[in-house]
Fold this sequence. Notes:
With about 300 residues, the chain is α/β, with parallel strands linked by helices. The protein has eleven helices and nine strands. It has helices spanning about 20-30, 55, 60-80, 95-105, 120-125, 150-160, 200, 210-220, 230-240, 260-275, 290-304; strands at about 5-10, 35-40, 85-90, 130-135, 140-145, 165-170, 185, 195, 245-255. Strands 1, 2, 3, 4, 5, 6, 7, 8 and 9 form a nine-stranded mixed β-sheet that branches. Helix 4 crosses helix 5 and helix 10 crosses helix 11.
Amino acid sequence: MPADLTLIINLCPGDAAYAALTAGHLAKAHRWQAQEIIVIIDDTKAQYSAFYDHKNRYQEPGYSISLAKITAVACQMQAVGLADKVLILSQYAEKTHLHKKYLNNRVTATHDYRGAPITAYLAGFEACKTQYLVRYDGDMLLHQLTVDWVLTGIDLLRKHADCIAVSPQPAPSVMKQDMAVEIDPTYWFSTRCTLFDRLKMLSTTPFIYGKYRRELLLRKWMQKTYPPALETMVCNRLKSAGFKNYYLLNHGWLIHPEQKNQLFLDLLPQIILEIEKGNYPNGQANKETLDLPAWEKYLQPVAY
């Protein structure tokens, strides 16, 4: 029987080349536990920022072609049962109210100063109707044990009043194969992958609150790291409310690929297979970012 859980996978046109593999990998990991899987496609364009190559990101016709591809990937996931709903952000009627509800309209930009999503992440909070919400950026790679890590996470959320979120280890390492749950409570969480108690989280909205409003005004006036990342805004609010994110130390781990060149695309199917089995090169141990040269060397006998 599924848990009281929604899985949110956030995608954008930049994920088009690999999302069929990565998003499919994440959906399969939680299909049996999630009542609903929602794929959110961020088709809105970020405001200009010198932090990244804005012109290249949205250059036409490439951007529109990638948007069509990522939409097709999400629709195919829905067709084969790996998604129940595809939400296109520009067509989401509730998006006009998100910044008021969650940010008190103190921040209205759709993306932060790095070009990372704000509105698309808020849409995931709003679209979820279950008590528990696990969300991933669509490029994440996950290894978990035979028991879905979110079940252990939900148990922690129920048992600990100060636990508002749970995450697996952010990097691979050797895990003890025992039944004891090892945790590391912290005031930080990452938007890359987190399980939330949505009811606890809603009790803290709007996220921009108290002293942080003054810091936000200063950031805006100085144009320094503004708009801030959503995780920064949320973490400040959760910490002020006494809530923590519990990292699970022995139920799974993540890897985040940053270098997504042709070599990455060529190796990705085998990388996913190895990660699902719990295998990784020595050079990847304790590293959050995918070490592509280490994987190339590790997979060379298999890939070529």
